[in-house]
């Protein structure tokens, strides 16, 4: 065996404050040889982030609460125990429909963690979207993420 076991206990991991919630790294690319990453997402009820396309695929698994997931022209209501897999380059966002939601996000490759870290450092999570949009667009461009209208 060439790898090293990585353990993330409850409450452990690097948190990244994003506009749609706190994304905490539970298993980073450095723990998986760059194959995938795992994040715990704690999200309040709030307006959805703009739909966006990313170069990595991902799966959302709902632990607590309910979310409405928008993927291209489709909408999916998810509650605890439900999961949805979103291919790379699909326009995607989610909105929390309960008071809050907690999810696991598993992403392919090693790009999401770098994106979340850069985004959290550059875009204040507590400011209105119209105020932070220029910074948001700079960060998304650096990581191959694009803000998109669903279905386009």
TrEMBL record:
This is Cupin type-2 domain-containing protein. SUPFAM superfamilies: RmlC-like cupins. It comes from Amycolatopsis deserti. Residues 42-106 form the Cupin type-2 domain. InterPro entries: Cupin_2, QDO-like, RmlC-like_jellyroll, RmlC_Cupin_sf. Pfam families: Cupin_2. It comes from the Bacteria. Coiled coil: none annotated.
């Amino acid at each position: 065996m060439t790898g090293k076991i990585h353990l993330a206990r409850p409450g452990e991991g690097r948190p990244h404050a994003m506009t749609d919630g706190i994304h905490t790294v539970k298993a980073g690319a450095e723990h998986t040889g760059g194959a995938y990453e795992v994040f715990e997402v704690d999200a309040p009820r709030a307006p959805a982030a703009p739909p966006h396309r990313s170069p990595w695929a991902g799966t959302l698994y709902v632990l607590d609460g309910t979310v409405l997931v928008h993927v291209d022209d489709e909408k999916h209501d998810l509650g605890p125990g439900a999961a949805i897999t979103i291919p790379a380059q699909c326009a995607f966002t989610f909105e929390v429909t309960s008071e809050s939601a907690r999810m696991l996000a598993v992403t392919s490759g090693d790009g999401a963690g770098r994106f979340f870290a850069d985004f959290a450092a550059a875009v204040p999570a507590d400011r209105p979207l119209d105020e932070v949009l220029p910074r948001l667009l700079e960060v998304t461009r650096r990581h191959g993420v694009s803000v998109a209208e669903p279905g386009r």
